[in-house]
Every structure is written in structure tokens, then in C-alpha cells.
Design brief:
By secondary structure, the protein is an alpha/beta fold. The protein is built from 13 helices and 13 strands.
Length: 369
Amino acid sequence: MKKIAIVVNNSWYAWNMRANLGFAFQEHGYEVFFICPYDKYSENLKKYFNYIDIKINTKSINPIEDLKTIFRYFKVYKKINPDIVLQFTIKPNIHGTFAASFLKIPALNNIAGLGTLFMSNNFVTKTAKWLYRISQKKAQKIFFQNQDDLKMFVDEGLVQKEKCDVLPGSGVDIEKFKPAEIENDGVFRFLLASRMLWAKGIQEFIGAAKILKEKYVGIEFQLLGHLEMNSPTAITKKQMEIWGKEGHILYLGSSDDVRVQIAKADCVVLPSFYREGIPRILLESASMQKPIITTDNVGCRNVVEDGVNGFLCEVKNVSDLANKMEIMFNLSESQRKSMGISGREKMVREFDEKKVISKYIKTIKEILE
């Protein structure tokens, strides 16, 4: 039985974003290993897959620490001897690829969005690009989630174009995320669900909420997602409490099943200026037949056809965001429903998770053969 190792930087991501990929590999006769740092979601992985804990400092730029990370991957890969490694997120993509190349194990990497790292041109960004340029020469295949990121990497010489391909994001499970009928209670709800990072447009969303709260009643602005993460761009618990006391937004905390909150929302908003791959929350919301408002930004614009299944707004423009949200609020229920139906059709047509899984299986067969 051939072995596949799925390598990511945390178990939450592994379980919530990549478990279906692991199940599909098992159905095709592969033995699956998940390699990622331990958290409470590791217990879910242990129930269904081989799981290996590994220590990674995801924020470190210390070269000594990075060498240690490469050595940790080397030891794990040598121990389990997988036929191929599938790597996601920056540290596995770079450090894991170095380790795999030393052992002559094929590496299939997924560069799923560039986050805040590539929003500037400082020393850290230049170092990351240099490491990508060296490491990705050793990968057998590299998947991107949008054409913008692929073009940037090719134009800057970070990857060889012939090794690359584009996936429709991570895809969406259209059977799990399907329309749900919720009784109308007279309150219109805008939902922003993401990690609570400034770059996700949280402040812009709150600015738009303040504008609309002054003009309308019966309208609610909800935030859903993790607080106090290990990131310099994370919104603090104290800041969220301040916003809550101002009365413009309702913070819902975090959730292991976002379908509950998406179902209750009338519109899902993501005013991100982060370099997204393709935001999973937008795919899930559109699949549940919800109209979307998001920025005309890398990754985000792939999900929304402006005026068809939602609206695009300008990046970091509070007044434009408020204007698009006001238009959405004033549409008739049938108009919003029509947008939601169009979004669902687009997900089925373009972003069905089965398309992503099929491409992985085909590519792995080609590499191993």
C-alpha cells in the first residue's frame, strides 16, 4: 500500500480543511499520514488516520530554528518513508520540501494564498521569496489557488511555470454546505466569518456598520472567528470588547460548524485586503445559497460575479463597502434569493471539492508512475 503524507502547520487546518482529501485517498487505496503540530483537533485525526506530532514555530525567522525545522521534517519523513508528501502553508512548503528532497521523496505543494507576508517588501518578505525560489525547484508539482498568485511567482522567478497548475481553491463540499431554510425573524444579519485579523477587513466592516446603524433599524453586524491568535496582525480580546461595548457589532466567538451561523445570515461579507488563495468561507456561504459582498482583491474576486451572486467593493474603502451593504439590504427578498441561487450554481459548476480531489489523485498517480 502506497503512503501519502499530508503536511500542514496546525491540526485545526488539517481536520477542517484537508480531512476530506485524506478520506478520498483512503478510498483510493492509499495509507494516509497527517503530520502537524498537536492541538485538540489532533484527536479527530487520530481516529481516522495515522497522525504524527511535529514541533513548528510558524512565526520564526531565525535561521537556526529553521534548520531545526528541516531536520524535524527529515526525521519524520525518514521514519515513515512516504511515497509522496503533500504540503500546505509556508513552513511545510519550504522546509518540508528541503527535507523531502534530501530523501528523494516527491513533494506536491499547495501555495494557498500569501497572507500578509507578501503585502510588503521588507527583509522577511525578501527572505521568504529567496527560500521559495530555492525550495520549489526541488518540488515535483506546485498548485496555486488563483492565477494572480501563480503569475506573481512566475514573474518573480520563484517557481518554474511548467511545474505549476491552478486549483479552484480548496473546493467546497456541496453536500455538506447546502441551502437551509430559516424562519425570518425580521432582523437582517450581515456576517463576517474569518480569523480575526486586521487584514481581513474587520475594521472596515465595523466602519460600514457604524454608517448603516445610523440610517436603519432591524440590522445586525456579526463577527465570527478566533481571537488572540499567535499573529502580530491579530485583533485582541480587549479591542473586541471595546467594539462590543460601542454596540455596532455582535461578536459570536468561534465555531466548529459555521453552517449554523451562515444559515442565519442574510448576507456574508469579507472585506479582506489579505492576499487570499480563495477564501473558504466565501465558497461555503455561496454553496449555502447566501449572497456575498467581498473586495475586488486577489482570491476574493474569483468567488463573486459582481451583481450576479453578490457585490465587489473597493479594497480598504469603508464608504464603498457601506454602499454595497446598503444596496444588498434594500434589495427585495426575491432578488437576494436569486443571487444566492446563482452563487450555489457557480459553486456546483466551478468549485465542487470533488474537482480538487480528482485533480490531486490524477497528479499523484502521474508523479508516482
